[in-house]
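Hello again,

I reread your note about wanting to compare the complex against the isolated chains. To keep things tidy I'm splitting this into two emails, and this first one only covers the full assembly. Below are the input lines as submitted, including protein chains and any nucleic acid or small-molecule components. They are followed by the predicted structure of everything together. The single-chain runs will come separately.
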Amino acid sequence: MQNKTDNLKIYIMKILVLISNVPDTTTKIRFTGDNKAFDATGVQWIINPWDELALTRAMELKEAGGVEKITVANVGTKITEPTLRKALAVGADDAIRIDAEPLDAYFVATQLAQVAKDYDLILAGIEASDYNGAGVGGMLAEILGINSVSAVSGIDLENGELKIHRDIDGGSQLLSIPTPLIAIVQKGIAIDPRIPAMRGIMMARKKPLNVVPPVDAEARTEFLSYELPAPKAACKMVDEDNAKELIRLLREEAKVL
Amino acid sequence: MSILVYTENWAGKFKKLTYEIVSFAAAIAKEMGSSVTALSIGHVADDELKTLGKYGANKVLNVKDDRFESLDNKALADAVTKAAEKEGSNVIIFAHNNEGKAIAPRVSVKLNAGMVSGVTGLPVSVDPFVVRKKVFTGKAFANIQIKTDIRVITFAQNSFEVVENPTEAAIEVFDPQIGDEEFNTVIKDTHLITGKVLLTDAEIVVSGGRGMKGPENWGGLEELGDLLGAGMACSRPVSDEGWRPKEEHVGQTGKIIAPNVYMAFGISGAIQHLGGVSSSKYIVAINKDPEAPIFEAADYGIIGDAFKVIPQLIEAVKEMKANK
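Full-complex prediction:
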């Protein structure tokens, strides 16, 4: 017979996954009004790819047991709701939308801090594919005064203890870090993002999506203008049978060998 | 006033990226009438610390404390913040890589500083402080003003030409006095791929894609890589198939690299792949398919069979080395 105290060791964890709403990665990028603002006309919005992998891993951990609840949170206006619904369809239990235009990373982290206090594990993608800021996760950890770990490529939950895999220069490490913890995740955290099934999409309609008013906060940075990169010069072609010429060009023309 | 640079070393030697950032910081310091302080955490010999002076560091703060080897994000952020406060720094610069992304956001909150990451080149102006960065994964640039008195930036590799500014760097031992309770990261195991060039700091990278047909065909690429002293990389399908270790995967969801030359063999160049290599100074593409998108990003290309091209390149590099 099993010892009773062993049964008490079941650890129930709450996970918060931060979700950025970004243009589909194949979107042609355009700007309006003297290149002062991003032109969102006709843009297809998606869950930021890294956040989607984070949510996928959170689901896998929940299915393996030991996770009580997965919440997703986003700072955005009403246009982000379809993205949050998609996260609910993938399997999150509930969603929080803080009703504000996400001005910059500090502003977003400050907003998230008001809803992020009661979670054991917070997952953030390494960056969002729109402004590539890589700031929100670390800023939120500092505002909350909790531990953070970046470049996370794997998370396992064994007997209530988190095992964190982190990429370092030239290799990887297995870490133990006490919760509450923000893990800033990248490639490897999950292999393929989960696609919502029809059943999930139906269930998502009934799951709670709570809209929270923003707190007073100021952005510390301001996007002044955008530019498209200059068109690239055509690729210089070398014949397949004369491949040695390539080394000569790299050495004498590009001067990089 | 000073500009603080967070340096990084690999086995006691500063990364090429660190010299680039010190030299970048020296250029900003000149515009702002300020000086450059470099912060070195770890075991770096005094002779090596002195080399930072060559690129314009006026002072080097040397933190020798083994506890930082766990790269605890919170403790490191505390140490950098204490250094910035001691030096009265109003610009703090990190590399836009794993370590920089882990620490810079925390430091920015501690110092009430605005932060911009992935800065590409000198500030557009220093008053107001406006910097430029890539957005939408390389599809556009943005000019961003940092409105606070203290600014934190992470610097995108290969966006500033390294220049020498011979300066005598004063070396000062610095103890930021971080309590044990701040160190909460415990390393249980470390797995290093030894004897290889560090991919993220390599000047030349040799990379293979699905066109290489199988893991047994990497011999030629490895030989070419060895001859060039190159880092080895691969595309996502190659790492997903397990042909190559996942540490070699470069692309939007893998490692982001910016070598002087990126040589792509049998890689079609999906937008996600280009997102990880588009900051390379030169991209070289070898692919059978003339329509492969990699040729739009490439500077030099060969339409042809990688297996026919690789032996010729090996021979040419051997000849080049023999003539040097």
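For quick reference: The radius of gyration of chain A is 22 Å.

B.
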